[in-house]
Write a structure and sequence with these properties.
Layout lengths: L1 H4 L3 E3 L5 E3 L9 H10 L2 H4 L19 H26 L7 H14 L8 H14 L4 H4 L3 H8 L3 H12 L12 H7 L9 H4 L11 H10 L15 H22 L9 H8 L1 H8 L6 H26 L1 H5 L14 H18 L3 H30 L8 H8 L12 H13 L3 H11 L5
Antiparallel strand pairs: 1-2
């Protein structure tokens, strides 16, 4: 089983699958996966994408890149501990704990690589735009499953598309990552058509990636008898690393921006770090509030990570079963940790996500992304409809030329044409999205 789950196979052009055998002792297959993410353009662009606070002028505030690096750091620690657990549990299987650490670390690096500009606000704008236009002629020609992909657009599915289709080798396996790393990246092993059943827009592959997804999960041994899929066990650790980081680091950013105070977070840290530790840090008059929170965040991440590893091992059989748990945090036996995470989310909803400046910037982001969609989607529809590309209107022709190598081609299906527009918009940084929208509005002259 674990030989399959730790597969070194890679997917290439023309449906070719090959096991990576070109390894050196200092650079394993999974190490190469890590390098491919780190050196990619799509990963580098995360430095100019919003984590929570759009276009922040404070250099201490997290962006998607710094967030992903921190999540990867936690994921590496979780992976090394679990790798040691697996090597002892399966002595007949050759399992290198450092390979497991690299798999989870790389999945953590890639988990947000498909997120649009302006964070979750950008994602919501795209979904809302497609939903409000779903009955318009230019979308009516799509199948129900195809339109669902756009109405429920999810960064998880786009991340999977980026690493398997878009980055490096366009429609030829993307980054050609190992199957083990790709499996660990997937939190929601179902398509957008399942979103209605679960009541939220969370899924991990579009219709365009459905065939490869089935191949991948068959190869990993994660297909169930009823035609659905199980999660890769290591994906639980990737998800936990993300959950641990974003809940706490959002508080750190909010304090940096003076949206919340030290007293607002005292009980959260007390629940995770203990009353004595919090009192010691809070009473230190030699350091400022932001450094106090940084210290407590570090202790909190450690405590939560240790408990996460314990929970993974205690629930290992359930995680391997067909009836898998939702996530590791719901299984926490230290209820004070669960309470702290809930309080952090509650504080985020009450004070951080509704902060006035954030709302103002998100409204601006709405207009930016709406401008991009209005112009590029209609231009793409005309491209699809016109028999001769030279007959495109001047405006639409120039709009498509703005897309450069990302522009769709007339030979593609309407669904694939629209996907290339979304690929282009989602791949933008905050600043570039603002720039292109200004050009389309005539404000960049």
């Amino acid at each position: 089983m674990w030989q399959m789950l730790l597969s070194k196979k890679r997917y290439y052009f023309d449906d070719e699958i090959k096991e990576d055998e070109n390894q050196e002792y200092y650079r394993s297959s999974f190490h190469k996966d890590y390098d491919r993410i780190i050196f990619s353009n799509s990963f580098r662009r995360l430095s100019k994408k919003t984590q929570v606070h759009p276009l922040s002028k404070n250099d201490h505030v997290h962006n998607r890149l710094t967030h992903s690096l921190e999540v990867a750091s936690v994921g590496r620690s979780l992976g090394l501990r679990v790798g040691e657990f697996l090597s002892k549990k399966y002595p007949h299987v050759e399992i290198n704990p450092y390979d497991v650490a690299y798999i989870i670390q790389t999945a953590c690096l890639a988990h947000d690589i498909g997120n649009p500009p302006f964070g979750h606000a950008g994602e919501e704008v795209i979904k809302e735009w497609f939903y409000s236009n779903k009955d318009e002629d230019f979308l009516k020609e799509l199948s129900q499953n195809e339109i669902e992909d756009f109405i429920h657009l999810d960064g998880n599915a786009q991340s999977f598309r980026v690493v398997t289709q878009i980055e490096n080798n366009l429609f030829g396996g993307g980054m050609n990552l190992t199957f083990a790393t790709l499996g660990a990246l997937v939190k929601y092993p179902h398509p957008s058509s399942n979103c209605k059943n679960i009541g939220k827009s969370k899924f991990n592959y579009f219709q365009s990636e459905a065939k490869f997804f089935r191949l991948l999960f068959d190869e990993l041994g994660l297909s169930k008898a009823d035609g659905t899929f199980k999660r890769h066990p290591l994906s639980y650790l990737m998800e936990a690393a993300d959950d641990i980081c974003y809940g706490l680091l959002d508080l750190q950013d909010a304090l940096e921006l003076k949206i919340i105070t030290l007293m607002d977070v005292k009980n959260i840290f007390t629940l995770i770090c203990g009353e004595e530790e919090v009192a010691k840090v809070y009473s230190n008059m030699c350091i400022e509030d932001t450094k106090k929170v940084s210290k407590l965040v570090a202790i909190s991440i450690h405590n939560l990570a240790v408990h996460t590893m314990e929970i993974f091992e205690e629930n290992f059989d359930a995680i391997l079963s067909d009836n898998q748990p939702k996530d590791l945090i719901e299984l926490f036996t230290k209820k004070e940790f669960q309470t702290a995470i809930k309080e952090a989310k509650k504080l985020g909803s009450a004070k951080i996500f509704n902060e006035k400046r954030k709302i103002e910037l998100e409204l601006g982001a709405y207009n930016i992304i709406e401008t991009l969609l209005e112009n590029l989607m209609h231009a793409s529809y005309e491209l699809y409809k016109k028999e001769d590309e030279s007959k495109l209107s001047f405006r639409n022709k120039r709009a498509l030329e703005l897309m450069g190598e990302n522009r769709p081609h007339k030979t593609q299906s309407l669904y694939n044409i629209y996907q290339r527009v979304v690929d282009y918009i989602v791949g933008m940084t905050d600043n570039h999205a603002k720039y292109v929208a200004n050009q389309l509005n005539g404000m960049g002259i």
